[in-house]
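INTERNAL AUDIT FORM
Audit reference: QA-55
Scope: verify that the stored structure record matches its stored sequence.
Auditor: D.O.
Record contents follow.
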Amino acid sequence: MQYIEVPATAAEDDAVVEAICLHPDWSDHQEEWLNAYASYRASGGNPWSVEPGDFDEDVRERMYKLYDGRRKTAALSKMRDMQLSSCPMCGSLTTGSLDHHLPREEFQEFSILRVNLVPACSHCNSSSKGNTFKGDEPERFIHPYYDAWAGEPLWQVEIKAPYPAATFAASPVPGLDEERTRLVAFHLKHVLGRQFTRSMISLWSTYPESLLDALSTYDLESVINGITIDRNRAIRTYGRNSWNAAFFRGLLANADAIEHVRMKIALVLANLAFGVAD
């Protein structure tokens, strides 16, 4: 999750519609189409405020297909190739795809609206989010272009015992107000999937050895300081709501998990001292 700059002005997006509507097949729909764009922008893409347009089925089908015909244009390719530190939707360390914030299956009129297209990882643009766009009011997805608070720390990874075979869950950080907590919880539930779990398993299983290489002493204070350094580095490198930053944020909030890491380091050192492979 990130807050990122809007990729096109209202005038630039409207100009695309106006150019399309120069064709007789589209000309009758320009006013309603532009009104839909204006409604989207006024509401910040909030699905509780935006209703699908009242277009005929054949028009909706043609609107849906507009993205397929334009996905390789320079404007959309530039968005897809934005140099971002992590996925603005889920926090993974990859991007390279475009995700429709409001799904075009439901909102065909926003198929090529650039403020409805978010640079994202392929995971976010596939099975996890799907066609879901809201839950129970006020639940919705965080919008990277309109929700400025998306740049604040919003979530952390819960590391659950037994720690040798830990399981992981994503949760909003403590201290958020009730509405924001619900929004973040809904967002996390629908953008994180199996790849997130695999990444956490890998990071957790290798982290004690990684930390061992970075520290000279392994008392509790030194281990906490080492984790804090790694959290801060993850924030600087990948962003406040990247998977890695959320992992270290959650680890620092879990005294038992920290102690497990410290004891794992002690065990590795003891095995090395006696020439025993871990």
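Auditor finding: record pair retrieved intact. The longest strand covers residues 155-160.
Action required: none
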